[in-house]
Amino acid sequence: MKGEAGFTLIEAVLAASLLSLGLLLFIHAAAVTARLHGRSRMASSALLLAQERMEVLESRGWDGIIADCAAAAGAGWEVDEKGRLSEEVEKGPARYRILLDKSSIAPRRERFTVTCLWDGEGGGFSRERSVRLATERRKDR
Fold first, then answer.
1. Which of 13, 71, 78, 113 is exposed most, by the fewest CB atoms within 10 A?
2. Nearest CA-CA partner of 41 in 80, 109, 90, 92
3. Residue 8 DSSP SS3
4. pTM for the full model?
5. Per-domain residue ranges for the chain?
6. What is the pLDDT of residues 104-132, one digit of tens each?
7. Is there a contact between 79 and 69 (Cβ–Cβ < 8 Å)?
8. Which residues pair with 92 in a beta bridge?
9. How far does CA 139 lie from the centroid of its chain?
């Protein structure tokens, strides 16, 4: 029966194994892509929130932000022991924590920093999942 055309059992098993491996690699790549897309979406939302807060901070100034927070007590803003403002926001499936900070960097210069951390995977807030924006300006007298 040497003249018959066709596949041997070993060739068929090898072909099925390679096909299965390729399919598994494709499914894994699709899952990784979906996870990275979700993280990218949360990072983009965090960046937009940070930009919004930075614009408000630049237009109102630190004292204006503090006054707004005092007037809107219980609206989500808190002041921690370091004098940073903190707010938690829920947007879609993720939670975001926004930190506003002011520091002096020279006698007449100050730096405003907006940090936005996100928790979309149930792992809590961490610096690995954050964006930070900073700006410097001359101090008001």
1. 71
2. 92
3. coil
4. 0.68
5. 9-138
6. 887 888 888 888 988 866 778 887 888 88
7. yes
8. none
9. 31
